[in-house]
Specification:
- The complex is a heterodimer.
- In chain A, 36% of the residues lie in helices and 22% in strands.
- Chain A is α/β, with parallel strands linked by helices.
- In chain A, 48% of the residues are buried.
- The mean pLDDT of chain A is 96.
- In chain B, helix 2 links the parallel strand 1 and strand 2.
- Classes of the chains: A alpha/beta, B alpha+beta.
- Strand 1 of chain A pairs antiparallel with strand 6 of chain B, so a sheet runs across the interface.
- Bound molecules: guanosine-5'-triphosphate, magnesium ion and zinc ion (2 copies).
Amino acid sequence: MTTRIVELRRGILKKNDELAAGLRQRYTAAGVLVLNLVSSPGTGKTAFLERTLRELLASGARAAALVGDLETDNDAQRLAASGAPVRQINTHGICHLEAEMVGKHLDGWNLADLDYLFIENVGNLVCPSSYDLGEKIRVALLSVTEGEDKPLKYPTLFNSADAAVISKIDIAEPCGFDREAALWNINEIRPGIRIFETSAKTGAGMHEWYAYLAEERANVRA
Amino acid sequence: MHELSIVSSIVDTVTESLAAYPGARVKEVRLRVGVLAAVVEDSLQFCYGIVTEDTPLAGSALVVKTLPVMAHCAPCGRDVEIASIQSLRCPRCGAPATDLRQGRELEIDCIEIVEKSGGIA
Ligand SMILES: Nc1nc2c(ncn2[C@@H]2O[C@H](COP(=O)(O)OP(=O)(O)OP(=O)(O)O)[C@@H](O)[C@H]2O)c(=O)[nH]1
Ligand SMILES: [Mg+2]
Ligand SMILES: [Zn+2]
Ligand SMILES: [Zn+2]
């Protein structure tokens, strides 16, 4: 018997990474800005997107959304009420979206007809950070009800984000939310990241977010 | 959950690479995992035992090499190791670490296999 070392040097999520790279090329060629929204369950991703979609459509922009959930199409129904094209991705037990699922749900959509495509990930602060969906911008959301140290508990996710949103600021006071600590913690994990403080309920802080979207959209326009 | 799909992917990759070594048995699978890879070694090991049953990897050991975060610090002009992922700052000068060079790896480094003697070496 002889033993032998075989070098493999292969990324374990290589298949997902390759599919994501293909999607990224498609998005860029179509000139659509793609964002992947990640947070804990219940942080307010759907509420934040509902408001964002309504605003974008009212301003004449073309926006669509994919929404991932383990089961049900409740979130897709809420988002579709904005008038935007929306598709639900049911992952049936898988706790995150993968590039392959996204690719399949784009069938029949002409991406070149879109300015923005939002992907609401499954509520989960762990594995969505490992699965690239080809997005240009990964947005990590944190609500004022979750504790300011969430970024420290889930550093991988916040470190992999391109922008952060603090949601539900309308109830910051009764929740005893320590704003300075939250901003500090996010910055310790992802130094220099853009942070938006918003309420999907009152609309507070949303204008900075819309301005950021417009800027980023202008950057991808072919 | 996600450890399970990681392990399945390891089994697929290793099984494919075994095609070149007929009759070989896998002794060890070595991974390189960055501390920012969002993978828990205990759950990996747990899933590994279950998923490899009835595969050519059955009975093999999974060896995980953990890689710390390395960043390039511009003020210091060199790569530095970041001690804590709760605070991404240069340990020498305290500057925020934005230019990460290591820490997100999730890869199979190599495998150790045992070939039957008499087989082509
Ligand atoms: N006060 C207040 N409540 C909010 C706000 N945004 C969302 N909520 C409430 O928070 C709860 C969860 O909101 P969702 O938008 O469904 O959260 P989600 O992140 O999409 O949840 P999952 O898809 O299940 O992960 C709902 O009861 C919302 O009404 C906000 O800005 N202010
Ligand atoms: Mg939702
Ligand atoms: Zn998952
Ligand atoms: Zn330094």
